[in-house]
Amino acid sequence: MVSVEPKLTISSFHQCSNLVSIKLSTTNFLLWKSQILPLIRGLHLEHHITSSEKPLDEITDSSGKKSNNPDKEQWVFNDGLLTSWLLSNMKEETLSLIYGGDTAYSIWSTINDQLLPNSEDSEAQLKNNLYGLSKGNLSLDEYIRKFKDICDKLAAIGKSLSDVDKVFQISKGLGIKYKEFKIAVLSKPPYPSFHQFIMSLQNFEQVYLAEEKSSIDHNQAFFTHRGRGSNMRGGRSNHRGRGSHNFTQNRPNKSHNFQASNSRFAPSSSTNLKAPPKEENKEACQICGRTNHIATKCFYRYDYSNVEEKAQEALASLYLNDDNDQDFYVDSGATTHMTNTGGSETKYHSRRT
Predict the structure, then answer these.
(1) Three-class SS of residue 311?
(2) What are phi and psi of 204, to 5 degrees?
(3) Which of 8, 43, 126, 188 could be bridged to 12 by S-S, CB 3.0 to 4.6 A?
(4) What is the pTM of this model?
(5) Contact 150, 126 (CB under 8 A)
(6) Which one has a higher pLDDT value, 313 or 70?
(7) What sections of 89-235 are H helices per DSSP?
(8) pLDDT by residue (tens digit) across 153-186?
(9) Which residues contact 3 (CB under 8 A, 6 or more apart)?
(10) Contacts for 81 with CB less than 8 Å, ≥ 6 apart
(11) Helix (H) or strand (E) holding 41
């Protein structure tokens, strides 16, 4: 207890009331206490809530003469102001818990006994909540706030954790996203304090989010650049060559008029108009099955996806014009060759060895 009571006035407590943002309820004692206690210390009145001792009514001087203690009157005045100030910062539900409190010490002791969890069951429950806490879908600030709240409650019942325990426990619930950060910070001692760890963790979060946003913006820009154009697929044209189209998607039906699928072999409209009438050929083409042309003149000749079961017959039409020379000079690896003599007869020539 201080030897001399500070001389306070009502205006001193009125100014302090502006610094308290909440009133005491049955669920926010620790938060309320964190605002009230520093103000009480600033007014030099902490001894009013930590000790029930009161100043003596009389004091004796060196000569043995007794007189009234001047500090007693100021103590009573200060304690009355402090008591009223504490009660004014409580909600009605909390006021009902205080029975006959007439001093600041009795009121402070009552609310501590009523609202502060001070049992072994509460300690076990708090530690279980702390060990099972994980970040999950929470933001980093929400996760840190919940972790600190449990640690504060443990400290309030005299079961506070060391800085090293806090650091390792909060890092345990961060998840795989922060794996590299945990390895860098906790791979070897000396380990950081809890405050240093939290600051480093928040800095890492800011850098990570900035890089992630930059990567997303880059990928979106790259996708937009490659995906331009109605005929583009994955940044690559559907065209296989100049003036050509994909046969597998745009091949016309055999029963319909042919439309050019390859500009190198398709006749132009001007050529068709000026070409002299040709003698009709009633025989069906061995490739597409249509009439009025032979296999060597068929527009589907180079469309290999159109080859059917009569491919052998189509190949037979590709004959050699020289009937006199029966020798084969190119070694194709085949044992028998088939040629057309120009008539209806087909000759087979065995390979000469």
Answers:
(1) helix
(2) -60, -40
(3) 8
(4) 0.44
(5) yes
(6) 70
(7) 92-95, 104-115, 120-131, 140-156, 163-172, 179-186, 194-226
(8) 888 777 889 999 999 999 999 988 899 899 989 9
(9) 71
(10) 8, 10, 12, 13
(11) helix 29-42
